Amino acid sequence: MLNKELLLTNATKDKFFSIIAHDLKSPFNSILGFSNLLMDLASRKDYDNIEEYAGIIMQSSTRAMDLLLNLTEWSRSQTGRMEFNPEYIEMNSLINETALLFDDIAGQKKITIVRNLPANVPVFADKAMISTVLRNLISNGVKFTHPGGKIIISVVENQSELKVLVSDNGVGIPKDKVQKIFHINQNYTTLGTNKEKGTGLGLLLCKEFVEKHEGNIWVESEEGKGSIFYFTLPNKLETKENK
């Protein structure tokens, strides 16, 4: 058991430093490079490519911000500094708020985000954690869906649980990789449809935060056809101290 915990700790540390050393550099390199190009174009009063380069800077900035948010939250969760504060929240409102964050970046790829939501779906949950789960699942949908594709967010409720589905008609996940995406010691990442780079950190956070609520998260995927990510939250969850 001790050896297993040590291996997990080392895998966590390796993942963290790998992201800082490699993944965080990429978006900032793009931002710096295309900012210099914009300055050069502006000085020459050449405005033909300004919109394109500005879009690339926005995408890179969004990616850097997402990565920093995930790193911060993951660091806090691994060191026990993330509080668990469940309260009654309106799931539909939270989904709508989170989906709106992706309007611009999804619009650039002409991806439609559809929300199939019933009216008034209260759930007892930590708003910040579930917002992070939604943000990462929608972000992955945008990243791995082809231009012109569609992402559908749905909510299904029964007496025992609330189930949220985030589906896309994107690239899908190879069958032999599906079980790896929620495990830190199984390093599986792939490029998005516009060569967006992923770290796998977002799904690790999703798993940790959903399980903190005594829920479950899983994926059904077919390579070349798309993926459906599911997560559940109990309909009734008593307030607990940090687990």
Question: What's the short story on this structure?
Answer:
With 243 residues, this protein is α+β, with helices and mostly antiparallel strands. Helices cover 48% and strands 19% of the residues.
Can you describe what's shown?
The chain is α+β, with helices and mostly antiparallel strands. The protein has 2 domains: 1-79, Signal transduction histidine kinase, dimerisation/phosphotransfer (DHp) domain (Helix Hairpins, Orthogonal Bundle), CATH 1.10.287; 88-234, Histidine kinase-like ATPase, C-terminal domain (Heat Shock Protein 90, 2-Layer Sandwich), CATH 3.30.565.10. It has helices at residues 2-23, 25-43, 50-78, 91-100, 103-108, 127-144, 201-212, and strands spanning 86-90, 112-116, 122-126, 150-157, 161-168, 217-222, 226-234. The strands form 2 sheets. The chain has a 5-stranded mixed sheet with strand order 2-4-5-7-6. The protein has a two-stranded antiparallel ribbon with strand order 1-3. The longest helix has 29 residues, at 50-78. The chain is globular, with a radius of gyration of 19 Å.
Chart the SSEs and their pairings:
Elements: H1 2-23, H2 25-43, H3 50-78, E1 86-90, H4 91-100, H5 103-108, E2 112-116, E3 122-126, H6 127-144, E4 150-157, E5 161-168, H7 201-212, E6 217-222, E7 226-234
Parallel strand pairs: 2-4
Antiparallel strand pairs: 1-3, 4-5, 5-7, 6-7
Helix pairs in contact: 2-3, 4-6, 6-7
